[in-house]
Design brief:
Layout: H1 2-5, E1 13-15, H2 25-33, E2 36-38, E3 40-42, E4 57-61, H3 79-92, E5 99-103, H4 105-108, H5 111-122
Parallel strand pairs: 1-2, 3-4, 4-5
């Protein structure tokens, strides 16, 4: 109820768990009760899982932070991992209205390339990344 009071009824909420002790039945039941998505993550300290707890799904392909010295081109190929994610995403499609996927630069070295690779696997049109890489925010 507090989340719904915070904004419009069209807002969606997701919870990203970064400690395995929170991956319990009690937490997933609470998220289901409030239609909050449990973010499915590919993060080093949390086991990979795709558990639907809301009417939408949220996937974060993160990887290990600061894995690469620069982030302007793919530096590893994780297509096998992306295929596993695709299987989970496609299996969950009948139970959700949308699936939102975030691809971090730390996943393969260049987030836009990872997005396009995943879109290709899913049979979706790809987008060309901007010609100039984003500068540092710090």
């Amino acid at each position: 109820p507090i989340l719904r009071q915070a904004g419009s009824s069209s807002l969606r909420f997701a919870l990203e768990v970064r400690h395995r002790s929170l991956l319990t039945r009690e937490v997933t039941d609470l998220l289901k009760e409030h239609n909050v998505a449990l973010a499915a993550t590919d993060y080093v300290s949390v086991p990979r899982q795709f558990t639907i707890t809301a009417d939408f799904a949220y996937v974060r392909l993160i990887g290990k932070h600061n894995s690469y010295p620069e982030y302007h081109a793919p530096q590893v190929d994780r297509v096998q991992d992306l295929m596993l994610w695709t299987e989970s995403i496609q299996a969950g499609l009948p139970r959700v209205t949308a699936t939102h996927i975030f691809c971090s630069n730390d996943y393969e070295g260049f987030g836009p390339s990872t997005c396009n690779k995943l879109k290709t696997i899913l049979g979706l049109p790809i987008s060309e990344p901007p010609p100039d890489p984003q500068g540092s925010l710090f």
